[in-house]
Amino acid sequence: MADEKRLEFHRLLLSVTPNAYFQPPANYKLTYPCIIYYRSEPDQIHANDSNYVQTRAYEVTVISRDPEDDTHFKLLELFPMSSITNGSSAINNLYHINLNIYY
């Protein structure tokens, strides 16, 4: 069952591009440009022998047929606690940019 915080994150992604997918199955047909995202380990700050702050984290991949697509720049602006990881790559004329986003 989806929690409200993830659904809110999904709605924000849809404000950047109309195609956002949460953990799509391997055989799912994607429409480009798109954002694919997965949950990852939260960012944790410990204090006083307990978790003081936990921030949800997502591994996000922007995929486009256009090498000059600026979707990743929009995400970096929208989510100040984000960064590009592993640079970019091109696979079968699809351009991938990976980000970590904390939300």
Characteristics:
five-stranded mixed beta sheet, alpha+beta, globular, 103 residues, single chain
Low-confidence stretches: none
The ordered string of helix (H) and strand (E) elements is HEEEHEE
Question: Portion of residues in helices?
Answer: 10-25%
The outline comes out as: globular
Provide the residue-averaged pLDDT: 89
Layout of strands and helices, then pairs:
Elements: H1 4-16, E1 20-22, E2 34-47, E3 50-64, H2 71-78, E4 82-91, E5 94-102
Q: What does this entry look like structurally?
A:
- The protein has two helices and five strands; from the N terminus they run H-E-E-E-H-E-E.
- The protein has a five-stranded mixed sheet with strand order 1-2-3-5-4.
Short synopsis of the structure:
The protein is an alpha+beta fold and 103 residues long. The chain has helices at residues 4-16, 71-78; strands spanning 20-22, 34-47, 50-64, 82-91, 94-102.
